[in-house]
Design goal:
Distance between the termini: 45 Å
Bound molecules: heme C
Largest sheet: none
Structural class: mainly alpha
Radius of gyration: 20 Å
Helix content: 25-40%
Shape: elongated
Number of strands: 0
Number of domains: 1
Number of helices: 8
């Protein structure tokens, strides 16, 4: 006799599908940064560790003021820009993140494996609004499907501390 799928599992699966189908809530960033307007600038000018370190990093005031001595335009309030001009930290919220127990190195993937940023982050240079959610869901299966394809390590200890 066939066993029925418990209704609670069906309910969970439906709830899961709904969550996946919902648009990601936009993350409230201190400045409505526009990547497309900066498409002529190399990623590593702002994300300094993207090719050389574990963390890419999100640029702080001192990077912005190298090009913008004054407020760029009306899209940023004078108050927000006076904080930047004074060198106060911009409270960016990072949205793409692995949990504490996972090791990830940008250098390993960009410099050694020569992967394009877009293979994990989508077309960042075309974005006109801040990232509301990671372009690619950060999950073990996302990492492993590429590792299997590229012949990179699938050893638990390579990724987990
Ligand atoms: C390498 C130079 C450079 C750096 C560094 C830089 N910008 Fe810009 N930014 C530009 C240029 C050039 C424009 C004008 C683009 C245009 O007119 O289309 C611009 C335009 C802008 C604008 C107005 C356009 C819009 O609609 O958003 C804002 C706001 C802005 N930048 C914020 C920032 C912030 C915040 C930082 C630091 C995280 C930063 N910029 C770093 C060169 C730079
Ligand atoms: C002028 C500076 C500047 C340049 C150039 C730039 N970025 Fe960014 N980037 C930012 C800022 C500021 C943020 C945080 C606000 C946001 O999400 O837009 C950010 C956010 C991101 C994030 C999301 C980080 C998170 O919280 O998860 C990714 C991914 C990213 N950038 C990739 C790129 C790539 C790829 C390029 C080159 C094609 C690039 N960026 C070029 C300034 C820059
Ligand atoms: C193999 C996939 C992969 C590639 C390729 C990749 N990233 Fe990332 N990126 C990630 C992951 C995973 C995170 C979250 C890392 C964490 O939590 O430490 C991340 C985080 C970020 C962040 C958030 C800030 C930070 O320091 O973690 C930025 C900005 C970023 N990446 C930019 C870039 C840029 C620019 C490139 C290309 C030069 C790039 N990434 C290439 C997977 C990738
Ligand atoms: C688009 C393909 C791709 C994705 C996605 C990807 N990786 Fe990798 N990864 C590689 C390649 C290729 C290498 C081998 C790099 C080298 O030459 O050392 C590698 C190497 C590694 C290494 C070093 C392994 C060793 O041999 O010690 C770690 C750790 C790692 N990746 C973690 C991650 C994590 C965590 C994620 C997901 C958040 C991830 N990777 C996503 C392609 C990818
Ligand atoms: C290529 C990198 C990589 C390898 C290899 C890997 N993991 Fe993971 N693992 C991750 C990432 C990234 C997460 C975080 C997923 C998330 O936050 O959704 C994770 C999460 C987990 C979790 C937490 C539960 C969960 O799904 O979030 C467990 C348990 C786990 N891994 C066990 C293992 C075991 C056991 C192995 C070896 C058979 C392994 N992992 C190999 C990248 C990896």
């Amino acid at each position: 006799m066939r066993r029925l799928v418990p209704p609670v599992l069906v309910a969970l699966a439906v709830a899961g599908l709904w969550i996946l189908a919902l648009p990601a809530a936009p993350v409230d960033q201190p400045i409505a940064f526009n990547h497309a307007r900066h498409a002529a600038v190399a990623c590593a000018v702002c994300h300094r560790g993207a090719e050389t370190a574990a963390r890419a990093g999100i640029p702080q005031s001192n990077v912005c003021t190298r090009c913008h001595a004054t407020a760029p335009d009306r899209s940023v309030s004078a108050r927000a820009w006076s904080d930047v001009a004074a060198g106060r930290p911009i409270a960016w919220r990072q949205v793409t993140q692995v949990p504490e127990h996972v090791m990830f190195s940008h250098r390993r993937h960009t410099s050694l494996a020569q992967l394009a940023c877009a293979s994990c982050h989508g077309d960042a240079a075309a974005r006109v609004t801040p990232f509301g959610a990671p372009a690619t869901r950060i999950a073990m299966t996302t990492c492993l499907s590429c590792h299997t394809r590229e012949g990179a390590s699938e050893d638990c200890a390579a990724c987990h501390r």
